[in-house]
Design a protein that fits this description.
With 131 residues, the protein is an alpha+beta fold. It has helices at residues 5-19, 59-69, 92-99, 121-124, and strands at residues 31-37, 42-46, 75-82, 106-110, 116-120. The structure holds tetrahydrodeoxyuridine.
Length: 131
């Protein structure tokens, strides 16, 4: 889909707010995500770390689980942000999870200055695995 400037700004701002709720005492690397759902609702997610490191959930998957758990369907776009100068992209596990909900979902990746780049999930995960 083509996102409007207003939608991009709104998603970036929601992702930043989500980042404030991160639980990242081990890495101190806070991440926020925001998902635009069909119908216009935006759902937030943050990374939630655990003393058993492998139990950590990334911000993107946190947001997806939250959205679906609340009954929302249809992911239109995802924003992800963090508190460094790098415009981080979703990790490999998150790319696979995002792909489950659409092959052309745009992902807005921004840094702490609000600079962003947009990539479709198919660009980030070419030749994705599906059943
Ligand atoms: N993290 C995310 O939340 N999303 C990503 O796409 C990359 C990594 C989190 C996981 C962990 O809490 C921290 O960033 C450092 O890896």
């Amino acid at each position: 889909m083509t996102l409007t400037d207003a939608q991009i700004q709104s998603l970036k701002s929601e992702a930043k707010a989500a980042m404030e709720q991160a639980h990242a005492p081990y890495s101190n690397f806070t991440v926020g995500a925001a998902i635009l759902m069909e119908g216009g609702t935006i759902i937030r997610g943050a990374n939630i770390e655990n003393a058993s490191f492998g139990a950590t959930i990334c911000a993107e998957r946190s947001a997806i689980a939250s959205a679906l758990s609340q009954g929302h369907r249809g992911i239109k776009a995802i924003a992800v942000t963090n508190a460094t100068d790098t415009k981080i992209t979703p990790c490999g596990i998150c790319r696979q999870v995002i792909y489950e909900y659409g092959t052309d979902i745009p992902i807005i990746c921004s840094n702490q200055s609000g600079e962003h780049m947009i990539h479709s999930i198919s660009d980030l995960l070419p030749h994705a695995f599906t059943l």
